[in-house]
Structure of Calcium/calmodulin-dependent protein kinase type 1:
Amino acid sequence: MPFFGKRDKDKESSKKSTNLLKKDDKSSPSLEDRYELKDLLGTGAFSQVRLAESKTEAGKLFAVKIIDKTALKGKEDSLENEIKVLRRLKHPNIVQLLETYEDKSKVYLVMELVTGGELFDRIVEKGSYTEKDAADLMRQVLEAVDYMHEQGVVHRDLKPENLLYYCPDEDSKIMISDFGLSKMEDSGIMATACGTPGYVAPEVLAQKPYGKAVDVWSIGVISYILLCGYPPFYDESDANLFAQILKGEFEFDSPYWDEISDSAKDFIRRLMCVDVNKRFTCREALQHPWISGNAASTKNIHSSVSEQLKKNFAKSRWRQLMHAIAMVHKMQRLALSSSSMIPAAIHEEKEETANAGVESTTTNHREELDAIDIDPSSSTAASSSMAAAVDSTARPPTGVPVRGSSIADGSTADPMDL
């Protein structure tokens, strides 16, 4: 019996009206009336994300997710669910849905633009990183997820790739993105297996009814990684990986955890507790001394954590390099100045497309492309060379598999990370 890919039995997507947003927009302004679509930022199975500039507020940029109705056929319910969830959530650490538009062939979601890049990349680039930094990140995530849970929403796919920095500033806040697998509690019992292997909670793997606690487990996994640079559960075999998770088997390995405080370890144990009834809620986690007090160490752990992140999550960097190849010519054509910036927040994890900024692409990424002997002057040759390079080097040296792809439950929208 297949573990993933189940569909809800009561689904009748084929009977849905072609007007997904259920609005009479004959007299309403269209997307083109209010926004000028610009660069393509990413593509998915049946959607794309474009940079857009407001026509009423010069210079104000947004991200527009454009969904093809024809390709979406049979998955209308999932799009309606995603829109319903995003409309309900208004929090400073959650990427906002601002407006929706629709025409005969497409649905448009105007989203808040996030430009600060991915969580792990920022940590690696930092010169100093402490437990206190990790605790501050987790506090922001917990506050947002606590709010989400108060609104009756379960994310179901929390992972580092879905945590993005709002802007490039050093003190930028963190943002939760990608609600393609989210579910509202009032929509019925959740028992369908979905999420990302490595971050999914035991009760999901056991195919038991589950709820908000699955998000708390995922936050525990992320917290673990933030303090050592590698995942608590890993195995080349999915069956063995799932067995580890079901048993809650993880260790605080020496020497990587030797300098980490007992409070941090206790915090993680409280979140990654197999017994759902004993697992902390977000509210309880926020009261833990490691988050709310002064228990988090201020010792610099950047060297060990960044080294492990680069080894075990190198795939993110390769995605950036692949994206950089395509972006080099675009930036040259646009003749962007060094002070300009291509938004870096639209992360296409499922389609192996990632965010990139002008400064990092034109300098750091070009240096990295040169280092692996790829000529960015030829996009076709570059793509082929990079594909070969990824195939031969993407597996982490430690043997820890890179597991980033979400496993849908058969009813999800094209989960473009916004």
